[in-house]
Amino acid sequence: MSTMLERVLVRCHQLRASDIHLGCYAEPTFRVHGSLVKDSYRLNADDMEAILLALLHERVGSETSASSETLLPGEGSLDFGYSDSEGRRYRINAYRSMGQLTVAIRYLNNSFSTLAELKLPEQIHQLVSAHSGLVLVCGATGSGKSTTLAALMHQINQTRPVHTITIEDPVEFVHPEGKGLVHQRELGRDFSSFSLALKAALREDPDVLMVGEMRDLDTIRAALTAAETGHLVFSTLHTNDAVSSVERLVGAFPGIEQDLARARLSRCLRAVIAQRLLPTSNRQGRIPAVEILLGNSATGNLIENDKTRQLYAVMENHRDAGMQTLDQSLAALVAQRWIEHEEALKHARNPAQFDSLVAQLGNQRGY
């Protein structure tokens, strides 16, 4: 590890940062509880070259001719994983900005927090015992999707004697030996295409499949097939809510195939979890606001008949079944004083009715 990289990573853990941003002639910048904090010195081009080569050491070995010019592909960006000398895991994206080398580093806390420790709703825990179907975890970049998926996979591995295959870019959380068996595959190292790796996985006797991202139509097709044929499939989408996640999946198909896609999804969808991370009231951390859509006869019927807008009403009116909208989750967090009212309003889908929802939930829970 280069001296500069070591300095940056030490500072990351001192600040308890989730992300690091490094660039030529710029201060190392850390994301702490959602906000950016800059260090007091600047990196030059030689520093950045040394940092990238240190991060890529496992891939390039001791090749003296390696440089950022030869290591970054034609599109000018590269994704990979990195483990430091302490065994801590990071997700790396190296890219160019105005022609200069830039690196974004996500620290992956491989301690595997439980779903309860992550403050995720109790009904999500039930997904661990499911035996088939499709579970989507959705949200913007930095919303905690990978952490939630890792917690789900870890709990399955520790409690069920099943075979799990993960298909990732890159491998983020390395799963230890548990009650189950886990094989983790990484793009570029173990396979060249998400969709082909997913199709191949069906011949590898899996019970559970985790696909890092639904990134193209072929991957979506393969994931639906796996879910339809008795496998439990977990994946992610970069969407803001549960309804848009359903619409994104269906919309990925050509027009003439969308009716069939709706029918397939209506039968195999187990759950959509859409989450956002919000700063806590004491500003000492972040907590997820979570929208939950569960697959059942009512939601399946609406999906199959292209009435996805009505799914909001189903989620609002079926809290007893474990569903909830984002606004209901936000209101509960406000009522419990986990987050500030003003912060919740920034994310509410219907701000005009939000106060009455907070009051209603507060009265129901005795706050």
Describe this structure in words.
With 367 residues, this protein is of the alpha/beta class. The chain has two domains: 106 residues, Beta-Lactamase; 203 residues, Rossmann fold (3-Layer(aba) Sandwich). It has 15 helices and 13 strands. The longest helix has 15 residues.
Provide a compact summary of the structure:
The protein is of the alpha/beta class.
Q: What is the count of DSSP helices, taking H or I runs of 4+ residues?
A: 15
Q: Any idea of the CATH class of the largest domain?
A: Alpha Beta
CATH topology of the largest domain: Rossmann fold
Q: Report the structural category.
A: alpha/beta
Instruction: Give me the Rg, rounded.
Output: 22 Å
Tally of DSSP β-strands:
13
Which parts are unreliable, with pLDDT below 50 for 5 consecutive residues or more? none
CATH homologous superfamily placement of the largest domain: P-loop containing nucleotide triphosphate hydrolases
Gross geometry = globular
Q: Reading side by side through the largest sheet, how are the strands ordered?
A: 9-8-10-11-7-12-13
Report the CATH architecture of the largest domain.
3-Layer(aba) Sandwich
Mean pLDDT reading? 90
β-sheet strand percentage: 15-25%
Order of helices and strands: HEEEHHHEEEHEHEEHEHEHHEEHHHHH
Query: What is the total number of structural domains?
Result: 2
